[in-house]
Amino acid sequence: MDFSKTAERISQKVTSHGHTVEMTAIEAKLRRLVEEFGVPPVEAERTVTNELARELSLPGLQTGGPVETKTIDSLVPGEWVAVECKVVALAAAPSPTIAQTGILADSTGAVRFVVWSRANAPVLKQGSWYRFESAVVDQYRGSVNLKIHSGTKVTEVAGGGALRPTLVPIASLSPGIASVRGKVVQEWEPTSGRILQSGLIADETGSVRFVIWKEGGRERLNPGTVYTIFYASVDDFSGRPSLTLNTATVVPEEGDIAVSIGDATFEGAFVHLAPGSGLIKRCPVEGCNRVLSRQNYCPVHEIQPNFQYDLRIKGWLDNGKETREVLVPRAVTEDLVGMSLEQAKEIAENTPLGMDEIFLRFRDALLGRYFSCRGREIDGRLLVSGCTTLRFQPERLAELLNRAGASP
Amino acid sequence: MTNGSLAPAPQRREGGFEREPARRVFAGELRESRIHFKEGQDEKSPSFVLLPTGERCNRVFFVGTLTEKKKQGEQNLFYRARVVDPTGTFFVMAGSYQPDAMQQIARLEPPAFVAVVGKPNVYQAPDGAVLISVRCESITPVDKDTRDQWVLDCARATLDRLETSPGTPDGERARREYAVDPAVFRKMVYEALAQLQL
C-alpha cells in the first residue's frame, strides 16, 4: 500500500503552520497503524495528524473532517458530537470529580452537562455560548446528558441570541430538561431535611410533583401562584416524572390558569384491604402527621406517646380490567363503614385485639363490595373525596339478557 | 387482522410492582381452563391461566354461595371449600400461606354468600383428570345484593371477552387450544342471568 499521498497531505498541513516534519516518519507511522494494527487508512490519517498536532501544539490541525454540528434535540446516547449552545444554568458540582454541571440549551432544546475535573476545560460562564467539539452524549437515569472530557475542545463563540424555550404540557413530561408553565396547587411537608420545598404543580393537562433542594439563593414558591419555569430537570421518581427546580429559572406570572389536578372516578369491587387501614395513630408534631408504628414510633420524631388517632382505608378497587389503589380519609371512611372515630377508639380499647379488631371489621365491611370512588389521582393512587356503595340495578339485568340472547 | 391486535401485552413498569386485576369468571368457564403459563423468566413473574373466552388471568374475583368447607391436614392445616355460582362450582383452597383467608374460612358457616379473591391454579389428578382450584387471598361474607351485582358484572365481562378477544394473541391462542364453541359461553351467561329473575 502506498502511504506517500497521505503522508504528503499531512506534511503539507504541518508545514502550512510553519513547522517541518519528516515525510518518511509519517509514512512509517501510517504503515505501522494500517498494516500491523489493522487500523482503517482514514482513521490512521486522523491518528497521525492528531499526534502531530499535540506534539507541535497545533490545535487547528485536528482532522476527522469537519464534524457536523448537532442540535440538542438530535443527540443520541453513545455519540461523539459537536454542539454549539448556551450555558443556561449552572449547579453545584455534586462530587470533586466534577468541575461543573448545569444545563446547556440551543434553539431546539436543552440538555444536562457535566465537565469532568480532569477535562481541564475552561470555566464555563452562565449566559455564554460555547462550541464543544468531541463531547460525549451519555445517558444518566433515563435522560440524555453531555459529558465534557479531556478530549473535548471548548471554545467560546458569539451568542446565538436570546433563546425561547418551548413550553411543554405537564402531562407529556419525560426525563430530561423541560420548561413548563404551571400553578403551585399543593405544598407538601418536607420528607427530608434537605428539601426546601416540595409539592404539586399543575397546568391544563395534568400535574407533576416538584422539589427544590436546600441550596444558597433558592426561594420557596408561593402556593396558588402561576410560574413559568425554564429548564427544570425532569427526573424519574418511582416511575413518575418529578421536576427538580434547582437548575431552573422560575418566573412568577400574573393571573391564573385553569388546572387539572386529576379529578377521577373509579368503579369496582374492593378486592384488598392493605395494612395501615383502620384505626391508626399519627405523629402529633406540628406539620408531621406521619403514621406511627405500634410502639408509637415516628420515623422522624421518635417515640410520641401523645399521638392522635385517625381512621383511614388503604386498599384496592378492581373493575376486572384494571385495579386502582385508593386512599380514603377519615370523613369518607366513617360514612363508608358506618363507624365514627370515637366508636372505633372505644371498640379498640374494649376488645382483646385492640386496633386489629377495627382492621378486621373494616375488612368484613368492605371486601367484595362494589363502590364508586371519586377523588384526585396522584401517582396512580386515588385520594378519595367521595364514595358510594353501588347497588344491584335491575335495568342492567334486562340489558345484559338482551345482549347475551342476541345471536353473536 | 389489524396491526393493533398484534400489540404485545402492556409493558410492566420497570422495577415497579403492578397489581394484576382480578378477572370476573363464571365457574362454568373457569372449569374448562387447562392452559397455565408464566410470562417471563423471573421467579416473581406472574403466572396466568388462559380462559377459554380468550383472556389471561392471574387473579379472579367471584361471589357465590359457600356450600361446604373442610379442614384438612394435620401439621400443614388447610381448608378446602366449595363456592357455587349460577353456572357451577369453584374449588377454593386456603393454606398456611394464606393465614388471613384461613381465619376467615374458619369463622364462616355454610351456607353463606361469600366474596372470594384468589389465584387460579391448574392441577392434574393422578387419574389424569384436570382440576382448577383457587388459592384464596380473602373470603368475606357478603349479602345477596352483592352476589347479584357480581353476576351482572361477570356476565358483562364474559360477553366483553367473547366480543373483543378474537384477533388478540390470547384470543387466538384460546381458540387453538380449546376447541370450544363460543356460543356455549354465551348460553351459559344467558342462563346465569335468567336465574336472577326468579
Question: Percent helix among the residues of chain B?
Answer: 25-40%
Helix content of chain A: 10-25%
CATH third-tier fold name of the largest domain in chain A: OB fold (Dihydrolipoamide Acetyltransferase, E2P)
**Beta-strand segment tally of chain A:** 21
Q: Main sheet of chain B, how many strands, which sense, barrel?
A: 5 strands, mixed, barrel
**Strand residue content of chain A:** 35-45%
Strand order, biggest sheet of chain B? 5-6-7-9-8
Number of helices of chain B: 5
Total domain units of chain B: 1
CATH class of chain B: Mainly Beta
- Give me the CATH fold name of chain B: OB fold (Dihydrolipoamide Acetyltransferase, E2P)
CATH architecture of the largest domain in chain A: Beta Barrel
Poorly predicted runs of 5 or more residues of chain A? none
Which quaternary structure do these chains form? heterodimer
Number of strands of chain B: 9
Uncertain segments of chain B: 1-15
The pLDDT mean of chain B sits at: 88
* Distance separating the two termini of chain A: 77 Å
Structural class of chain B: alpha+beta
Shape of chain B: globular
Provide an overview of this structure.
The complex is a heterodimer of chains A (408) and B (198). In chain A, strands 2-3-4-6-5 form a five-stranded mixed β-barrel. Chain A is elongated, with a radius of gyration of 32 Å. Chain A has 408 residues and is an alpha+beta fold. Chain A has four domains: 4-61; 69-157, OB fold (Dihydrolipoamide Acetyltransferase, E2P); 170-252, OB fold (Dihydrolipoamide Acetyltransferase, E2P), CATH 2.40.50; 263-389, OB fold (Dihydrolipoamide Acetyltransferase, E2P) (Beta Barrel), CATH 2.40.50. Helix content of chain A is 21%, strand content 39%. Chain B is of the alpha+beta class. Helices cover 29% and strands 34% of the residues of chain B. Chain B contains five helices and nine strands, in the order βαββββββαββααα. Chain B has a five-stranded mixed barrel with strand order 5-6-7-9-8. A three-stranded antiparallel β-sheet of chain B has the order 2-3-4. The longest helix of chain B is centred in the C-terminal third of the chain and has 21 residues, at 144-164. Residues 1-15 of chain B have low confidence and may be disordered. The A-B interface holds A 238-239, 269, 271-272, 316, 318-323, 325, 363-364, 367-370, 390-393, 396-397, 400-401, 403-405, 408 and B 13-16, 19-24, 59, 61, 63, 114-117, 137-138, 140-142, 145-146, 148-150, 152-153, 155-157, 159, 162-163, 182-183, 186, 189-190, 193-194, 196-197.
